Amino acid sequence: MKQSPRVLGRPRHDDNAKPTKELVLETATRLFIKDGYKNVSMDDVAKACNVTKATIYYYYPTKGELYTSALIAMMKRIQLHIKQILEQPTAFKERLEQLVEIHLSATLDIDMKNFMREATINLSEQQLKEVHASENEMYKTIEQAMQSEMDKGTIRTGNAQFFTHTFMALMSVGYFKDGEGNRLFQTEANAAKEIIDFFWLSVKKSS
After folding, report:
1. Would you state the pLDDT for residue 25?
2. Least confident of 22-26, 81-85, 171-175, 200-204
3. CA distances from 104 to 32, 146, 149, 172 (A)
4. Which phi and psi angles does 206 have, rounded to 5°?
5. How confident is the model over 27-63, as pLDDT tens digits?
6. What is the pLDDT of residue 108?
7. Which residues bind DNA (predicted)?
8. Among candidates 55, 53, 36, 54, which has minimal Cα distance to 44?
9. Average pLDDT over all residues of the chain
10. Residue 45 near residue 31 (C-beta atoms within 8 A)
11. Most buried of 7, 16, 131, 188, CB within 10 angstroms?
12. Would you say residue 195 has pLDDT above 70?
């Protein structure tokens, strides 16, 4: 039987290789992390993937769509790691400390504030909604854990959403560097301990 022609513009698929769309997204994410939105072109992504620019545009018609997908994929990975850590059978304070240490270690080279700032400037309203929805899902994972620990009596009763955003704000302090590039904390482990000790004072139950 004569093989039907491929759809025009559809990239060839190698069953033994990583799916092209996945390769493009992972490569683009690395480039966006390293150089920022403005300094990465679709041609840069194509060259890094060793594919044609037409291939990139087949999967992601605009750079905004590629950036949106990169942000969402990154947040989903972070959310998965958060969930895995918070579901461990250890003390809640220990889980939070581990979460901060691992998160800081894994995202030390990722400036999430800059990612979101560039998203606000360069993405469409609909794309921003998609990004913020993914961000909210990430926060919800922590919020649900906070509420669960309240119900168990591990921490005091309060607003789980407020606790979550306070926790995330404190965690961001772990990235702080002064004007000369010196970090506030020497190690991620030290940052995690200091941050959680401080946070725990506000959420622990009164004796």
Report:
1. 93
2. 171-175
3. 19, 20, 23, 8
4. -70, 140
5. 998 898 888 888 999 999 999 999 999 999 999 999 9
6. 65
7. 41-60
8. 53
9. 86
10. yes
11. 131
12. yes
CATH superfamily of 73-203: Tetracycline Repressor, domain 2 (1.10.357.10)
Residue 207 pLDDT level (bands cut at 50, 70, 90): low
Whether 170 shows a pLDDT value over 80: the answer reads yes
User: In the Cβ-directed half-sphere of 75, how many Cα atoms lie within 13 Å?
Assistant: 22
- The token pair that represents 41 in the structure block: 């072109």
| Per-residue confidence (pLDDT) for residue 88, from 0 to 100 | 93
Domain boundaries, the chain: 1-61, 73-203
- Domain 1-61, CATH homologous superfamily name and number: Homeodomain-like (1.10.10.60)
Task: Name the residue with tokens 């899902």.
Answer: 137
* Structural contact between residues 184 and 177, judged by C-beta atoms closer than 8 angstroms: yes
